[in-house]
Amino acid sequence: MRFLGVRTVQLASLAGFSWGGSKLDEVQAAAKPRTCPIQIQRPEQVKDDVLLSRKVINHLDKSNLKLRLYQYETCPFCCKVRAFLDYYGFSYELVEVNPVTRSQIKFSTQYKKVPIIRSDDTTLTESSLIISQLATFLQRPDQSLDQVIQMYPGVDSTNEKGKPVVNYPNKFFIMKGKMEGEANMAAAREEREWREWVDNWFIHLISPNVYRNWNESLETFRWFEQVGDWHRAFPAWERVLAVYVGAAAMFLLSKTLKKKHNIADEREELRKACRDWMAAIGPNRKFLGGDQPNLADLSLYGAMNSFYGCSAFKEVILEEKIADWWRRMDSVVKNHEGRKTLEARNPQKQ
């Protein structure tokens, strides 16, 4: 069960969540206003047996991918994918998955985690793999999405519990199809290393921080219910079940995760992670990618947005220098400032 995630602060305020004049208000007020005319709809009618949480439409997106993202609004892995899609201005539909019944992903008989993206009959899984595949799609106008997927072969393996799994050894690579100079190769290597750091370390710090006691765990799930629009998607009994069962399960699981990852002081480790990230960026770059965010920036921003409504965000993130970086990321993602890359891509003949 991978809860943790969130919407933008704008949507949180619409849902009735208030910070009561906290530093988050100051951060948001300082951000640039949204300037991109991308349309967001909230359909009221069921489509293909599911109710869409929302539909993001960029009329200049000529990719014809017809993306549909199945997610938990409160999952850091899903937040990573949404940050990527929103920054580059993809059109996509979004389906909120019931965390208890998972009925919305019954079509996926083998893979039962989120995020899942469908593009017509093509299914994409695993957040970092999805991001790499779509980033390669942007870089390779000579290739269709199906052709790009073939560049990421899976390898059968077993996990620590002995269960069969499929690994993707090159899931952090962007397959540009051409040789690059030494500087670009170094930048790509740095991007891969920090994307792995987000997946393998930073995300593991979230659960121990947002579920560190019963009160915070319950508070977190009640907030998840609000920002996830669960009242639109699920009946009352399912919402109550998800909040209380989920809060209890994640409270217990967080203790296991804390021990597994040798986390002594969850708040202090989160502060150190923020400082490590800012040290990597250094004083002369706005983002790890330079003047524009790269995939590591988008991944960390998405993961951080998964808990911006929780006490840990208010107590740690907003008290660190990383808050300035987060404000810049919030602006460029909400304004879809990478959209020209997508809009300039020549549509493929299918």
TrEMBL record:
Q: Specify the pathway.
A: Lipid metabolism; prostaglandin biosynthesis
Localization, per the record, is:
Endomembrane system
Would you tell me the Gene Ontology cellular component terms? endomembrane system; mitochondrion
Origin, by domain of life? Eukaryota
Q: List the GO molecular function terms.
A: prostaglandin-E synthase activity
Which InterPro entries has this protein been placed in? GLR_AS, Glutathione-S-Trfase_C_sf, Glutathione_S-Trfase, Glutathione_S-Trfase_N, PGES2, PGES2_C, Thioredoxin-like_sf
Keyword field: Fatty acid biosynthesis, Fatty acid metabolism, Isomerase, Lipid biosynthesis, Lipid metabolism, Membrane, Prostaglandin biosynthesis, Prostaglandin metabolism, Transmembrane, Transmembrane helix
GO process annotations (BP): prostaglandin biosynthetic process
Which EC class is the enzyme in? isomerase
Tell whether Lipid metabolism is among the UniProt keywords: yes
PROSITE patterns for the chain: GLUTAREDOXIN_1 (PS00195), GLUTAREDOXIN_2 (PS51354), GST_NTER (PS50404)
* UniProt EC number: 5.3.99.3
Please give, as recorded in its UniProt entry, the membrane topology of this protein: Single-pass membrane protein
List the catalysed reactions.
Answer: prostaglandin H2 = prostaglandin E2; prostaglandin H2 = (12S)-hydroxy-(5Z,8E,10E)-heptadecatrienoate + malonaldehyde
> Which residue ranges does the record assign to the GST N-terminal domain?
65-142
- The keyword Lipoprotein is assigned to this record: no
| UniProt xrefs under CDD domains | GST_C_mPGES2
Signal peptide stretch: none
Which PANTHER family does the annotation name? MICROSOMAL PROSTAGLANDIN E SYNTHASE-2, PROSTAGLANDIN E SYNTHASE 2
Family membership, please give it: Belongs to the GST superfamily.
Protein name as catalogued: Prostaglandin E synthase 2
Which species is the source of this protein? Answer: Caenorhabditis briggsae
